[in-house]
Structure formats: C-alpha cells, structure tokens
Amino acid sequence: MVPQLEELIRDSSNIVFFGGAGVSTESGIPDFRSVDGLYHQKFDYPPEVMLSHSFFMRHTEEFYRFYREKLIVHGAKPNAAHLRLAALEREGRLKAVVTQNIDGLHQAAGSRRVYELHGSTLRNYCMKCGKFYDVDFIDKSQGIPRCTECGGIVKPDVVLYEEGLDPDTLEGAVRAIEGADLLIVGGTSLAVYPAAGLLQYFHGRNLVVINKQPTPADHMASLVLNMPIGRALSADSE
After folding, report:
1. 189 carries a ligand binding annotation
2. What is the pLDDT at residue 238?
C-alpha cells in the first residue's frame, strides 16, 4: 500500500473520487490518448471527428461501425481501483465517484453514487419515442440500429463532442466535489473540458493526484503518485 495515501484516507470522512480513462486501462479498456489507445488507430476520420454530434448526424452508419468496433467493450471486469472505491463507499468514507468513463465498471464493482459525466454505453434510447435498449441491442444490430416500436434511431446515452453535459449529472458532481474534504483525482490527464474544470469547485483539505504522467493539477496536490491507479489504491499494493 501507499502509506501517505492511506493516512489521508483514514483522516477523511467525505472523500470524492474524480477519474478518467486510466482507471479502466487495467481492465483492458484502452484510453483515448495512450500509445495503444483510440487516438492511435487508423480510420478514415480522426476519432474526435467520428465521435462528434455532427458526424453522428451526417454519417450515422459510419458512426455506428466505429462505435461498435471501438467503444463497446466485451468482457471487461472491475479492477483493484474500482473495487477499492466501492469498498470505501460501503465504509461511509467515499461519498461519490465522478467519472469521465462510459463503461459502467464503477457500478459493476458496487459503487452506488456515480456521476457519469460522459454517459454510458450501457444505456441506449430511441431518439423518437425514448424506448430503452441495452448495449447488446446496439452490438448485435446491423447498420443503423432502429427502434422495434417506432423505427427511430437508437442512440447511445453517451455525450459526443459538440454536445453538452447532462445538467443534473453536472450539478451532482459539482455538489459532491464542493463538499469533499479529500479529492482523489486518478487516471486522467485533466485535458478534457468541461470535465477537468470541475476541480475548481474543490476547497477541501487535501487533493491527491494519481496518474502515470504529470497533470496540470500536480502543483496544487498534497500528494502526487505517478503510478497505475490500481496499484495505488489497492490495500495490499507495495
């Protein structure tokens, strides 16, 4: 374990975790900007273009081809970081998880209060009538997935580029961060806005940053750990 981190956790009663893609890489999900990540794959268009609202509207079938291949994850399981955070919530220390990830692994690990800033691949809705569909419906569909009730397009509940964050989710995340005495930031480069801007709402005692690479928040942190987040959070890590 990391003694300095464990001491901060023990001394805190209102912990909030703010995480990004690096939290899920240890579950086998590539992050967007790593060497093996989504941004280093070869497609007809850059990923940030294909994951934009305008591309979805203009090239819908191509969007879904990319989406099925790269954003739907098969067989991923929660890792040590997800499990530790869920355990801290059960202990009453951790009050919320704020995540930029769309894979649902925090909930799979047992976390209950999770603010998914960018939505989830596990939820999909008909754009016309609102009927809910699970991820398997999208995965197994061909071409553009259509609602079985009204024929409308079934769209993932994922925030695309050019789309705004859900106001209720954003408000909940802000309130959680404002009330935290310890904010643990992990697995994120803090390069994606407006999500990264949420750190400005933290006024608690201690900020911890856990990331393999330096981040813009390092200079404000009480503790910076440049290591895999699963190793840092695992109770038996060395």
Report:
1. yes
2. 42
32 is in an annotated binding site: yes
Task: Tell me which of 82, 106, 118, 203 is the catalytic residue.
Answer: 118
Q: Which long-range contacts (CB under 8 A, 24 or more apart) does 82-89 make?
A: 82/23, 82/27, 82/106, 82/108, 82/109, 82/111, 83/109, 83/110, 84/233, 84/234, 84/235, 85/17, 85/109, 85/111, 85/233, 86/110, 86/111, 88/9, 88/15, 89/113
Asked whether the domain spanning 30-72+121-158 has the same topology as the one spanning 1-28+78-118+164-238, the reply is no
Residues of the chain with pLDDT under 50: 35-36, 237-238
* pLDDT mean across residues, the chain: 92
CATH of 1-28+78-118+164-238, one of 3.40.50.1220, 3.90.550.10, 3.20.20.60, 3.30.450.30: 3.40.50.1220
Distance of CA 15 to the CA centre of its chain: 17
**Distance in angstroms between the alpha carbons of the first and the last residue of the chain:** 5
Q: Is 219 tagged catalytic? A: no
The domains of the chain are located at 1-28+78-118+164-238, 30-72+121-158
Superfamily (CATH) of domain 30-72+121-158: SIR2/SIRT2 'Small Domain' (3.30.1600.10)
Contacts of 66 (CB under 8 A, 6+ apart): 43, 47, 50, 51
Q: Can you give the pTM of this predicted structure?
A: 0.92
Q: Is 101 annotated as contributing to ligand binding?
A: no
Flag whether 180 is marked binding. no
pLDDT at 36: 45
